[in-house]
Amino acid sequence: MSEQDQRHMKRALALARKGVGKTSPNPAVGCVVVKDGRVVGEGWHQKAGLPHAEVNALSMAGSEARGADVFVTLEPCSHTGRTPPCAKALIAAGVRRVVAGMVDPNPQVAGRGFALLRKAGIIVEHGVMEAECRAINRPFIKHVTTGLPYVTYKCAMTLDGNIATVTGESQWISCLDSRRYTHRLRAAHDAIMVGVDTIIADNPQLTVRHVKGRNPLRIILDTRLRTPESVGVLSESMAHGTIIATTESNPRVHLRYTQQGATVIVCDEYDGRVSMVDLLQKLGKRGIQSILLEGGSRLAGEMLQNNVIDEFIFFLAPKIIGSDGFAPFTLRGITSMDQAIKLKFGQIAHSGQDIIVHAWPAEAVCSPA
């Protein structure tokens, strides 16, 4: 990998990041067209159904695309979906070389895009900054390879590991900068997930407010359908984007929520509660690629023990509550350190007066770049 190739791929990655959270169920992709050392075209995939990154970059490059080198974060697609194949667009433009960050794991592509390009006489290289290219599309990669959504757990906690006082008060542990960051996370995910206890205790809006962005779907885990019909997420303007997961199979009971516009998903029962594995499979079939898990501690603990959390984001505030507070995970049965659930640290950064800690399961498949 030459220094110039790396520089152009870095630019393609920066373009791709502009689409993160906006392209689902498609991946976020960036593309740069270079002719005689000059950047003549740039583009990124802005939204599902709109032209892909390569088409946008070729459009900007115009006739200068002929004989040019193309740097793209993901293998150009070879199939016709809502838009034509990008590989054919590159061939028609007469590019000389295509450098891709990674192979597209989508079974509909999976090397076929490269094969089309090579058959047309175009030089193909891939694997440039692959770890970084994979990192921006973790939810897409997991969903397209397993059918399951990528789950990110987020919580604000005090320095001594509490998410609320003994009375349940948690507003606000984190600073305003951290809350803005949380709302950017919300805007970048397909759905937010909370337990019914959080809905009853806090009546949260679960919307994007502090930043610009679309509201994600709202998923409530409610085994026995205890969600009050008067809560905000079931209001006239919000119910259509709310999903309630339950083990209650009586459709007449569901009417309390479906008549307001909400969706009820009946799941298998495991240990007296909604089966997390079954729920995630059902959500994946609905095309939900990414979930931001926001609590509470019982739900978070259950998902942690079921090994279905892919990424952790902790906002650590310089505050202390003491031993009467609530821990982020309700876990039982760990009596020795060798039984502890092990994580590995990713990025650690400041957010106003707080510290943001990213972590992954020690055996994570989609580990940090």
Detailed description of the structure:
- The chain has 369 residues and is of the alpha/beta class.
- It is 28% helix and 23% strand.
- It has helices at residues 3-17, 53-61, 86-93, 112-119, 130-135, 138-146, 176-188, 196-202, 251-258, 276-285, 297-305; strands spanning 30-35, 38-44, 69-72, 97-100, 123-126, 150-158, 191-195, 217-221, 242-246, 263-266, 269-270, 273-274, 290-293, 311-317, 343-351, 354-361.
- α3 runs parallel beside α4.
- It is globular and about 65 Å long.
Task: Map the helices and strands.
Elements (H helix, E strand, L loop, with lengths): L2 H15 L12 E6 L2 E7 L8 H9 L7 E4 L13 H8 L3 E4 L11 H8 L3 E4 L3 H6 L2 H9 L3 E9 L17 H13 L2 E5 H7 L14 E5 L20 E5 L4 H8 L4 E4 L2 E2 L2 E2 L1 H10 L4 E4 L3 H9 L5 E7 L25 E9 L2 E8 L8
Parallel strand pairs: 3-4, 4-5, 6-13, 6-14, 7-8, 7-13, 8-9, 9-10
Antiparallel strand pairs: 1-2, 1-3, 11-12, 14-16, 15-16
Helix pairs in contact: 3-4
Protein name: Riboflavin biosynthesis protein RibD
GO molecular function: 5-amino-6-(5-phosphoribosylamino)uracil reductase activity; diaminohydroxyphosphoribosylaminopyrimidine deaminase activity; NADP binding; zinc ion binding
EC number: 3.5.4.26, 1.1.1.193
Give a short synopsis of this structure:
The protein has helices at residues 3-17, 53-61, 86-93, 112-119, 130-135, 138-146, 176-188, 196-202, 251-258, 276-285, 297-305, and strands at 30-35, 38-44, 69-72, 97-100, 123-126, 150-158, 191-195, 217-221, 242-246, 263-266, 269-270, 273-274, 290-293, 311-317, 343-351, 354-361. It is α/β, with parallel strands linked by helices and 369 residues long.
